[in-house]
Specification:
By secondary structure, the chain is an alpha/beta fold. The protein has 10 helices and 8 strands. Strands 1-2-3-4-5-6-7-8 form an 8-stranded parallel β-barrel, surrounded by 7 helices. Strand 2, helix 3 and strand 3 form a beta-alpha-beta unit. The protein is globular, with a radius of gyration of 16 Å. The N and C termini lie far apart (33 Å). The structure holds ligand FQP and magnesium ion (MG).
């Protein structure tokens, strides 16, 4: 298997749903199936925060959600837990600045998708050098989905990275809604990643569809 091509990665990043059991008021499998029906393009299993599952229960939930993704051709990414990603033969992993050395993770996962969080130009340059396939940049807007989130930077950080020649596929994260997708794509993001905008929506399918429409509209206009 070869590394994913940049163009394919950019497309997959368009509507990137991130979720774990703590984000769900209904069964996670139900929410994921609805989100897929609404048009998400990529899924990240992020089992984290107070009350998150661990051990066998975490593994079983991951397997259940991975199966749903495989049934619909949606790539399945695991947050933080590289060993779990390898055990499941997941499509990739996402790591942050505190989750270990991206170079070592790249060696461990071979050609699987590697996503790395970046909050500034130095971290973005390091992620590119380490062999990341995409970077997650944010939080762009204030978020309640991540207990230890850094200060929101606004879409300007995306513009700054692009202006300094960061050309790698880039997804914006943090407080994203259908209403602010336009400015994030206009700033140079290839897509948006959300947790509560879909997981907490009355209809995850409608929420996913509105995000997808907003991204496509903004990309056409970009
Ligand atoms: N999980 C993430 N996914 C993305 C993605 F690009 F995929 F949208 N970007 C950023 C993060 C945040 O990653 P990290 O800083 O390690 O915090 P946590 O492990 O609590 O999520
Ligand atoms: Mg992390």
């Amino acid at each position: 298997m070869a590394r994913i091509a940049s163009e394919a990665m950019r497309e997959q990043l368009e509507v990137y749903f991130i979720m774990g059991s703590v984000n769900c008021a209904k069964p996670p499998a139900e929410i994921l199936a609805e989100a897929i029906a609404g048009g998400i393009t990529l899924f990240q299993f992020r089992e984290k925060g107070s009350g998150a599952l661990v051990g066998e229960q975490k593994y079983e939930l991951a397997k259940q959600l991975q199966h749903i993704c495989q049934e619909h051709g949606i790539p399945f990414i695991v947050n933080d837990d590289v060993e779990l990603a390898l055990a499941l033969d997941a499509d990739g992993v996402h790591i942050g600045q505190e989750d270990g050395d991206a170079r070592i993770v790249r060696e461990k996962i071979g050609d699987k998708i590697l996503g790395v969080s970046a909050h500034n130009l130095q971290e973005a340059l390091a992620a590119v050098a380490a062999g990341a396939d995409y970077i997650g940049v944010g939080p762009i807007y204030p978020t309640k989905s991540k207990e230890d989130a850094k200060k929101a930077q606004g879409p300007g950080i995306i513009r700054l990275l692009r202006r300094h020649g960061i050309a790698i596929p880039l997804v914006a994260i943090g407080g994203i809604t259908a209403g602010n997708v336009g400015e994030v794509i206009a700033a140079g993001a290839d897509g948006v990643s959300v947790i509560s905008a879909i997981a907490s929506a009355p209809s995850p399918a409608v929420a996913a569809r509105q995000l997808a429409q907003a991204v496509h509209l903004s990309k056409k206009g970009a």
